[in-house]
Amino acid sequence: MGQARGHPPAARGHEGHHGGQAQAYKDLADYATNKIRRPDLCQELWEKVRAIDPQDVDALRALVTFYDQNREWDALTQAVDELVELIDDPAEKVDLLQRSGIALQERVGDRERSVEVWQRLLVLDPENRRAGDALKKALIELMDWDALTTYFAERDRHSELVKVLEGQVGFQQDDAVRIDLLFRSARIWAENCDQQDRAVRALERILQIEPGNVEGARALEPVYSEREDHRKLAGVLEILLTHEQAPAERRRIMLRLAELNEQHLRNPSQAFSWLRQVVGEHPADAEARGELERLGGAIHQWDAVHDDLVEALGRVAMEPDVDVDAAQLAILLSLARILDTQMGRGDDALQRYHDALDLDPENREALDAVEMLYERSARWADL
User: Fold this and answer.
1) Which end of the chain has less neighbouring CB within 10 Å, N or C?
2) SS3 35
3) 167-181 pLDDT, tens per residue?
4) Rounded distance, CA 213 to CA 233, Å?
């Protein structure tokens, strides 16, 4: 009747032996603590209790105090970890974790472990200001911006977060870190605080630090376009062009730069330079060639237009997926017109028209122009 079900006598006797031994040491430890007042002896006795029964709550509580007094920080934090798992009182858990967090952060300098402790404490007491401040400090020192963002986002404190991040820009020495902080700030201003102007200022600070930053330029392009800030838009487009490799996207950017310079920035010469670059990279592009002729004529740059078209004539055969004969014919006709009407070089114009007829013997424009040039120069025999 007296035997506990599920435990053989040997096991019971073993447990009873260790339980009695632990209690004997506890009695000695209590006596030493209250009467003898020898901290070294008290700590030794409590450690014997813990060695016999690692889950003895009284021993762990006592040892936390002794480890704290003796500045045995590693032992303290280990004892706290074990004790917190054994007790139920939230307030006691908070007090213990606070001791451990302070020891790790301020005494040991182990910020990574202190972060874990502060996070455990904040699960128990989300509004604990000391733990929150300590966690923020540790995360900033660790430059763990993701964890810092999570901390503030979980509390819907985005305005405070972005101010902390921007404040760190002035303290950090590494440009890459400063740029990362500004990108984070820009996203928070735009997505969480609905303050687009502040987001733009953060992105502009990135370009002040790194004038060629392509991500910053890409983020600012739609903003400047919507605001019709043509000068700044042209600046970021030039940055994007420097890093862009795709032919179609390069063409888009250069044509946009040409448009901005001609129509908004009152710089037709720069617009013409951009059109020349488009034609240089896309010799088969009839639209770009037409714009080059139009603007080149407006600013009296026919020599440059002529030279660019001659170069395009030689390079168009290298373009993929192009009707080479049709493209060369169009370029030859343009060259002939320019030579005749703008540069006064009738003989050269006549040769270009003949080259065009070699490609298309029935071309009406070339036939009519050849006839006109022969008549003008009274070359009746040739006619």
Assistant:
1) N
2) helix
3) 999 999 999 999 999
4) 14
